[in-house]
From TrEMBL:
The lineage of its organism: Bacteria, Pseudomonadati, Thermodesulfobacteriota, Desulfobulbia, Desulfobulbales. It comes from Desulfurivibrio alkaliphilus (strain DSM 19089 / UNIQEM U267 / AHT2). This is DSBA oxidoreductase. SUPFAM superfamilies: Thioredoxin-like. Transmembrane segments: none annotated. Belongs to the thioredoxin family. DsbA subfamily. Residues 1-26 form the signal peptide. Pfam families: Thioredoxin_4.
Length: 286
């Protein structure tokens, strides 16, 4: 090694030491987070990308899942030889969350796909069924979406099968390329203020191909709504704020199209009577 090379390395090391030992460290701000003490010895830890979940791999072949407050929310069994863990994916961006566990001695790598129930705000939203039903089905819908119109028989069927166990909640998610979806949503919300949301809902879907401002107002008259109050509510900031809140709730839940349905916070991936019934039965079993 030449003298010039040795001198260069010495200078680099000296700069590094100065940086490490300099006064910048005195400006570090820190705050203690949640403290978790698993019953089993922890081997490795990983965080979800949004920081909402903590995965702790412990001795005995288990992954413990904790929330941001340090509360245990789930346990996943894995091979007892696994001693390393990492997390990938971001559910809120539509990328399914996964954890990867590795056994250093065996060289085995295993990937586990995860699904989590979402907490969806349903306060004040119109619903069918018992308010305290153990299973809550949340539907994000658009009155100009033809697929949404075809969900109605599916919902009616599940209500007949589980009359006391299921509550169906309607959430508005008007799509930007549907010209009259927002006016229709606002109209049903104004009708809700007069106790006639579901009647307006049914008539809009029945006349979906004819939706226009004129048809919306005609439905309001057919239902004998107080038109003065109806018109006033349509212009109210409160109604528009409620609609925007529904849209935000959908976006936070990862909704990208309609209809999107959740059963106790779990996404219904295939809209069929069999799949919906299965998810309701699984929710009841839990």
């Amino acid at each position: 090694m030449s003298f010039r090379t040795i001198a260069s390395l010495t200078a680099i090391i000296a700069c590094a030491l100065l940086l490490l030992g300099g006064p910048a460290l005195a400006g570090v701000s820190w705050q203690a987070g949640v403290a978790i003490t698993p019953e089993e010895k922890p081997l490795d830890v990983a965080y979800s990308l949004d920081g909402s979940r903590i995965y702790i791999l412990v001795e005995g072949g288990k992954v413990l899942i904790y929330d941001e407050q340090g509360e245990l929310t789930g346990t996943i069994p894995v091979d007892p030889e696994m001693d390393r863990i990492s997390a990938v994916g971001l559910q809120r961006a539509g990328i399914p969350e996964k954890i990867v566990v590795t056994g250093s001695a065996s060289g085995v790598v295993q990937e586990l796909s995860l699904r989590f129930a979402l907490q969806i705000n349903t306060e004040g939203a119109p619903f069918l069924g018992r308010a305290d039903a153990p299973v809550e089905i949340v539907e994000f819908s658009d009155f100009q979406c033809p697929h949404c119109a075809r969900v109605k028989p599916l919902i009616e069927q599940i209500m007949l099968q589980f009359p006391d166990q299921v509550k169906v909640v309607f959430k508005h998610f008007p799509l930007s390329f549907h010209e009259y979806a927002k006016p229709a949503a606002l109209a049903t919300m104004a009708a809700q203020n007069q106790g006639k949301f579901w009647e307006f809902h049914d008539k809009l879907f029945a006349a979906q191909s004819e939706i226009s401002p004129q048809r919306i107002r005609a439905i309001a008259r057919e239902l004998e709504l107080d038109m003065e109050r109806f018109n006033r509510d349509l212009q109210s900031r409160e109604l528009h704020s409620r609609l925007e809140q529904d849209i935000q709730d959908g976006q936070q839940a990862g909704v990208r199209g309609t209809p999107t349905i959740f059963v106790n916070g779990m996404l219904l991936e295939q809209r069929s009577p069999e799949n919906l019934r299965q998810m309701v039965e699984e929710a009841l079993a839990r």
